[in-house]
Write a structure and sequence with these properties.
Rossmann fold, 5-stranded parallel β-sheet, 3-stranded antiparallel β-sheet, 9 helices, 8 strands, binds 2'-deoxycytidine-5'-monophosphate
């Protein structure tokens, strides 16, 4: 039997969202991009001038606004009070703000509760940093997807190049190392591999290979 909850965690740039979306499509599961939820809170904080470490202000933003996710061909569509903000949340300044916002314990507990509610309704593939450890600790299939910092930097640099931006790959790699350090050492739900998660290193794997590996794991064919 295929696992009804598939948890995919790992550092930035490991390819989690691309792979998670493909796995969800093939299995007919709902894909939930939890990073998009932290980004939506960060966007609200920027728009409404709330400090990124103001637990009370951030909590009020989550309570007073309707943040929802909808399946979309490109992954997840993110709505704030019914308005599609899927593009806005991908801006670099929103990504930068999402990092301190996601370190606030009160923000995490509200978003984790929303994520658990979504996963209770139907089979899901959920990606993030704390899915196997905190959000879905009982998931039957847990994957920790990673890749070397150089490979992740190269992938990120290619994305930026495609958007017409100039990039210094060494600088991109340094930023990735700093972000890994911040995500892994924060007090609230640091990024770490769950004890029962399977490590998949995608440094030398193509997307299709990673997708097949995760589906095999979800179907219990772990050899
Ligand atoms: O995966 P991403 O870049 O969209 O995530 C945005 C930020 O949210 C990033 O700083 C990590 C954080 N995050 C988190 O702390 N827990 C999650 N489950 C998902 C993302």
């Amino acid at each position: 039997m295929t696992a009804a909850q598939i948890a995919i965690d790992g550092p930035a740039g490991a390819g989690k969202s691309t792979v998670a979306k493909l796995v969800a499509d093939r299995l007919g599961y709902l894909y939930i991009d939890t990073g998009a939820m932290y980004r939506a809170v960060a966007l609200l904080a920027i728009e409404q001038g709330v400090a990124f470490d103001d637990a009370e202000g951030l909590t009020a933003l989550i309570r007073d606004n309707d943040i929802s996710l909808e399946p979309a061909p490109s992954g997840c569509r993110v709505l704030i009070n019914g308005k599609d903000v899927s593009r806005d949340i991908r801006l670099p300044e929103v990504g930068n703000a999402a990092s301190p916002v996601s370190a606030v314990a009160e923000v995490r507990s509200l978003l984790v509760a929303m994520q658990q509610e979504l996963a209770a309704r139907r089979p899901v593939v959920m990606d993030g940093r704390d899915i196997g450890t905190v959000v879905l600790p009982d998931a039957a299939c847990k994957v920790f997807l990673t890749a070397s910092t150089r490979v992740r930097a190269r992938r990120r640099a290619n994305e930026l190049l495609q958007k017409g931006m100039t990039v210094d790959i060494d600088q991109v790699e340094r930023e990735i190392i700093e972000r890994d350090e911040r995500d892994s050492t924060r007090a609230a739900s640091p990024l770490r591999q769950a004890e029962d998660a399977v490590l998949v290193d995608s440094s030398d794997m193509g997307i299709e290979e990673v997708v097949c590996r995760i589906i095999e794991l979800a179907e219990g064919q772990t050899s």
